[in-house]
């Protein structure tokens, strides 16, 4: 299939960013004091909010007029951002053979890509955007059906999951982030251990208000910091967020709201040492998870932990002894 997996994953990330209202429009840039004007740079007719970029700007309104049936247009253009996104991802207007949620997702992803191209002077040639989006949606739907038809095993089996020691001459840094509310009060934490599970150091960070991915990335960053400053040069970084591991392994575009944090982490990873970034199940990351919960009881800011806190000492002992936890995993 021509439509790459990375594009699909990026589309999913885009939907998450839209749903959490953190797309970096001119309104958001002005709010963060990163720009002087909220006005749309394409139509100059209204503040460039997320809803304006994705739906109401003349650059996109014409496309939606051609995609949405006439009888549904008034309601389509009247909804608030979250109502508009969620309702169109779960409903199916009459749109020929393409599934509407997929078509809608393709359209809002490319609305943002086209807007970035307009702003940064990287606009590509697309003579018929309506047909272009429809073709992409049909291609993604076809790929999904082929994948579904070709999948022979969809069962899950129970496996026993435990923290694994990193092996001789390596150390492991387990990190985690937590957010109550997403965005809401958030923390990050990490634990550095050698092969036999011995505690080498750790940290707990009470961040304040942010989203879960931001907290996870701060955890990764400070985990790398304490490992580097501790003089360790062969490090296994274990994170239980597949999204964050994807950011670290594949990178993000410069326009991504989390690009700054991802670049901070990459700055450390690219230093003169060996760092293996690994996704683990939460059952193998219980110590970092416990430390992140413990961090909610601490004052705002960073706390270096020379000794394992008593609150999570039993978890550390479990990991040393190889205690497992059950988890249903795909086979």
From TrEMBL:
Locate the coiled-coil region(s) and give their ranges.
none
Q: Which PANTHER family match?
A: OS05G0353850 PROTEIN, POLYNUCLEOTIDYL TRANSFERASE, RIBONUCLEASE H-LIKE SUPERFAMILY PROTEIN
Domain of life here?
Eukaryota
Q: What is the lineage of its organism?
A: Eukaryota, Viridiplantae, Streptophyta, Embryophyta, Tracheophyta
Q: State the organism named in the record.
A: Arabidopsis suecica (Swedish thale-cress)
Could you tell me what this protein is called? Ribonuclease H-like superfamily
Q: Name one GO molecular function term.
A: RNA-DNA hybrid ribonuclease activity
Q: Which InterPro entries match?
A: RNase_H-like (IPR053151), RNase_H-like_dom_plant (IPR044730), RNaseH_domain (IPR002156), RVT-Znf (IPR026960)
The chain positions of domain RNase H type-1 read 167-297
């Amino acid at each position: 299939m021509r439509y790459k997996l990375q594009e699909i994953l990026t589309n999913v990330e885009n939907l998450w960013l839209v749903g959490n209202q953190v797309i970096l429009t001119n309104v958001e840039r002005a709010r963060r004091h990163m720009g002087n004007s909220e006005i749309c740079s394409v139509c100059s007719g209204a503040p460039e909010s997320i809803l304006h970029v994705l739906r109401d700007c003349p650059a996109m309104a014409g496309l939606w007029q051609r995609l949405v049936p006439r009888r549904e247009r008034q309601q389509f253009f009247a909804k608030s951002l979250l109502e508009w996104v969620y309702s169109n991802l779960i409903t199916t207007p009459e749109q020929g053979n393409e599934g509407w949620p997929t078509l809608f997702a393709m359209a809002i992803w490319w609305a943002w890509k086209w807007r970035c191209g307009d702003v940064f002077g990287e606009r590509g040639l697309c003579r018929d955007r309506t047909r272009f989006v429809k073709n992409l949606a049909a291609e993604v739907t076809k790929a999904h059906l082929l994948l579904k038809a070709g999948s022979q095993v969809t069962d899950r089996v129970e496996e026993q999951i435990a923290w694994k020691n990193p092996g001789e001459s390596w150390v492991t840094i387990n990190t985690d982030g937590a957010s109550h509310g997403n965005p809401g009060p958030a923390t990050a934490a990490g634990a550095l251990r050698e092969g036999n599970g011995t505690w080498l150091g750790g940290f707990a960070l009470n961040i304040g208000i942010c989203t879960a991915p931001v907290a996870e990335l701060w955890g990764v960053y400070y985990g790398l910091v304490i490992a580097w400053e501790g003089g360790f040069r062969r490090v296994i970084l274990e994170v239980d967020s597949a999204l964050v591991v994807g950011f670290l392994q594949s990178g993000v575009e410069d326009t991504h709201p989390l690009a700054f944090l991802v670049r901070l982490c990459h700055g450390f990873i690219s230093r003169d040492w060996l760092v293996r970034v690994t996704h683990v199940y939460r059952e193998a990351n219980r110590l970092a998870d416990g430390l992140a919960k413990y961090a909610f009881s601490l004052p705002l800011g960073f706390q270096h932990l020379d000794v394992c806190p008593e609150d999570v000492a039993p978890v550390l002992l479990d990991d040393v002894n190889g205690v497992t936890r059950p988890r249903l995993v795909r086979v």
